[in-house]
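pasting input
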Amino acid sequence: MNKNVNCVFGVLALLFTLYSCEFSPSEIPLTELEEPSDNVPAVWIELTPGMDTLRLSAPIRITYFVETGEHQLYQIKVELDNVEIEHLGYESPKKINAHIPVTSMEDGLHEIKITTYTATNSGSIADKTGNEIYWYELTWPVFVNKQAKDNLGFSDLELVPEGLKLSWPQYRYADFEHYEFSWHAANTQDGRISITDPYQNSYIDNTYVEGCYVYYSLLIHYTEGGFAYDNKSYFEEIESPLVQVNEDCTVDIRWIHSKYEQNVQLYCIQTSVPSYGRKEEHDVTNLNDTTIRLNEKIGFGGDYQVRLRYIPKGYHNYHSALNTAGGVTTFAIGDSVPRFEEAFLISNENSLLLYHEGSVSKYNILTGESSQTISINPEGNAYTGMFNGSPDGNCFGYFENHDYVIRRSSDLSIVNKTDLEAFNGYNLELNSVAVSNNGLIATTGYFGAFRIFDSMTGQKIYEQQFDSRYYPRKVLFSPDGKNLAVMVNDYTLNTTSLIYYSFEGNELAELGRVDGVGQSVWDVLVFGPQDKQQLAVSRWRSMYEYNVEVMDSRTFELLYSVEIPFLFVPVAYDFISDQVIGRYQSFPTKDFSYVVDLKTGEQKQTVLFSGKEPLVFTDGIVYSGNGRSIAIDDFITE
Amino acid sequence: MKKILVLIMVILSCWQLSAQFNPGRLKFGILGGYAFYSQDDLKSLNQIISDEIPFDTQIIDDFEPVVYFVGYVQYELFNQFYLGPAYEYHYTGSRLGARDYSGMFSFDQYVRTHQLGLKADYSLFSMKSIFIAAELNLGASFTDWEMDSKLEIGDNEEYSEQELEQLEGFSWYVSPTLKLGYQIFSWVSLTGRAAYSFDVNQDYHYQNNKNIDIIRNPDWNGLKLSAGLEFQLR
């Protein structure tokens, strides 16, 4: 029995042994494969923006494209300063973009690292499971400057032989899109260019020439929108031409070449002339020519100007419409003397008393020296002028603070101040003021009043109201102060009459009259100095026909009468040389004037008197308000 | 499994203690042989794995015929009719793999089953020492199934990955058998058997999750050829 039991348990032991039997897998045979080469195959990448160093001033999205060819692309990893950028945008499996948060970055240097993982294509298990890879590391330096957009604009202009060079700081940052540069030259050309190269930070305006007013603007566009703007305007004055006035009154003009000759189409010479002068315009297309002689001789009595323009290429409008800077030269005939708006002769000093822009001075016509100057603040109107001198010039007067101030010409000291009852509020309501050598003041008012004051006492010593037939205009004292000439509008005759009065014992008595002396208030009667005691009257006969009659200022007796040529008007009288100058005052203008001898009536052609500057004619010399004088005999042409 | 073995031992002990028990009618047998299981589902699973992984693999082992073992005890209830418990142990497996300079991959399947049932034996023919009998085995299969995949990269396994999936299942089996015997001594015979096993009503699941449906199962159908010894306690 025990034997059987042992047998049973032996069998069970065998079963338990079998229980441990199990499938045992075979060895896996080795597959022979060639290991991947250490020479990593090339890949082609495209990185935008395409910058060796990524320069940033604002947040931007970079893109990275890689072409790995036959090698499967496993992964692209982007790190900024060794921190992986987790949220990449995939435009395709091979093209990613990543946002660079510049606003949260410190200014300075940073680094982007882009790692590309590809298959080795060895076919091995590791290759196929992505554990055997080629990887490519791209290190991209990053420079952050968040202040880069500040103060963008033009740098200084630079003149270069080709034209005008404008520069601006390079904006070499990733959000650069393009520069937009535009130019505008007044009356000439506009233009606009787009520059996509951030390194091209200048532009040469090769249309520029001197004198042109140009305006440039610069826009720097950013890829993320927005722009920076600046503008600059510029002009360079044309160097004024040299003018030579010859003895025969011809004029030669010489100028220099433009510094930008290649941009010049032609030279334009234009003159501006005073009244009764003749304008000229010359286009010089041969740029080798830099001289010209004006066709017209110039006249005396006003300033001439010549304007030189460099006409740029491409300009096809009227040359006079081209607004340019500089290139202007003023010239005139005669010797240089002080300028004046009003002047008269101081007989016993051989001086001129001059009023010019609020200043009174004396100019010695023999020595050419100027005396002391005083400043005044005169009040006047179109009829009275600012300044009145006595017939001999030993005193003069003017309104200042509503009083009439009399000064001695000898030392310019004040004699007295008189209220001439001339103002209505702030309005000076006088047609004329006259000062005598002996201290009387006569006025004619807007409403027909005729008054005489004693400048020494300030007393009104005579007053008369002209009746409605007459309207008093101009009044003058005779050199001895005993007579007055009053020019009135005679509404009955419908002309202007000269009534000559004696004034003695504060009584006014008519000595005579001349009707039809003229229609203008100017230059129709002039008193000579005391030693001559003469009164010259420009007597108007008909339109532009004048006689000049010289009277004895004491008796009103006619001494001489001369005829002024037709269309010439007497404008200046010389009681020393007994001459009168007749200026042509019609159109078309002539290029000469007349000087007429008051005694003989002899007429001589002389230089053209142009312009409307005030004139003083004494002892054969004419002084003009434009600061010139000539000896009339030197300019007799016929 | 251990509970079943304990149960068998309890049954045998009961027999031995029984007053009517005649030890001369008791026989024991052990045998071993080759089983040709189809395991079509598991083979297709290898193919799927092979197709899915990115590198070339080869099937190293593919559920080839393997040795199995059987032990049984029978008692002659009637003339020439024996009945008793039987235990069978079967295992097989496969390997899918690849190896090159860069590393190794393997996908191994291990399946083993413990079959516990009843073995009925009826002698059809007997002449001198040779006898022929028909057998019918039926019972339950308790199967363990493991899928072990490994990936090792690098000479020193710089990268290593392993995934082990463990499943278990239950099925019924019926195995008709033709037995040829030769009595060497009065108490021992040499036997040879040819059987075909039918595996039905399979129910498999993960060991730790029974809610996942398993659509491919181990399949224990197949021809079994075996030889063994049979002892009688006379």
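fyi Chain B has a mean pLDDT of 89.
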